[in-house]
Amino acid sequence: MWENLEVALEKVPREKMKAKPDQDKLGFGLHFTDHMLLMKWDRVNGWHDSKICPHQDFHLDPASMVFHYGQAIFEGMKAYRGKDDQILLFRPKDNFERMNASALRMCMPRLPVDNVLKMLRALLYLEREWIPAAEGASLYIRPTMIAVDPYLGVRPSETYWFYVILSPVGAYYAEGFSPTRIYVSDEHVRAVRGGVGNVKTAGNYAASLFTSQVAKKAGYTQVLWLDACEHRYVEEVGTSNIFFLLENELITPPLGGSILPGITRDSVLKLAESWGVKTAERQIAIDEVLAASQDGRLQEAFGTGTAAVISPVGELMYRDRIYQINNGQTGPLAQRLFTGLQAIQHGYDADPFKWTMRVF
Ligand code: COI
Questions:
Q1: What is the mean pLDDT of residues 27-49?
Q2: Predicted structure pTM score
């Protein structure tokens, strides 16, 4: 069935196409391209009715299960305009495989990865004029799956929609690549081990909002979450994984089940190792981080993610005390990783890991 998957095309007439936004003022997630990809799933037909169609409102029953029980998963990936105007994707199969892992955990159907990738490439070709060329800009890709049975009993839905929308973006944080200020939460937690913290499901983000608002009101960009049992070990930032450079060792928390297995996280570990940087995936207590920041052993901290890329952390706030990292400045390793990763993603540097896929 999957092998024969075909995609219908319903184009927006040229005169109805949207004006493209200013590439130097894109922000994040504000603008959407003219077209999207949509397909449906049910038990009898599997994935069917796939089409590239105008980016549009959905008509859904208010009883649709996604609105009540949160069966919703998504991914974040980017298309880059690179050397000679070639368009590249970065580890796209890894994103769709991760989406399938999320689907399994959330009792949702598997995606036919190769076919979805083929359809995505067709969509990107159609929307090629939307892929920005400005430095630091890219076309953010948001594949999403939602449960659409109109039913109020608690069970997995038996029908789903999968769609992909596209958004030209600049930096995720208002700070751009300048250091962010991060609020460490010792009260609320993001996820528990054995829960769904390691899958990209909408509820994880909803659960983070309250504390993120507290952090924002206090002047902080994001929340650094600690483990749910002891409120002691560092987990992730919610929109990104976290790294610390401590005595020349690059440390990030292990994938213990409650943090997202970030593709940028994995790429940073491999890239840093290839440069001879010592790396460790190990539990790191917030006390250890703060003590190291006070006695000068903590050299750098930064977040990693598709949207956030590499986002340096200049300050941590924990229990009303402020801890500066690298005098609030971007560190040399974060800078090198940011430049190195982007050069691979845009095809300007060799790609020894074979991470990039040329779209056209
Ligand atoms: C991404 O980095 O792509 C994410 O999905 C994080 C986000 C919620 C903006």
A1: 97
A2: 0.96
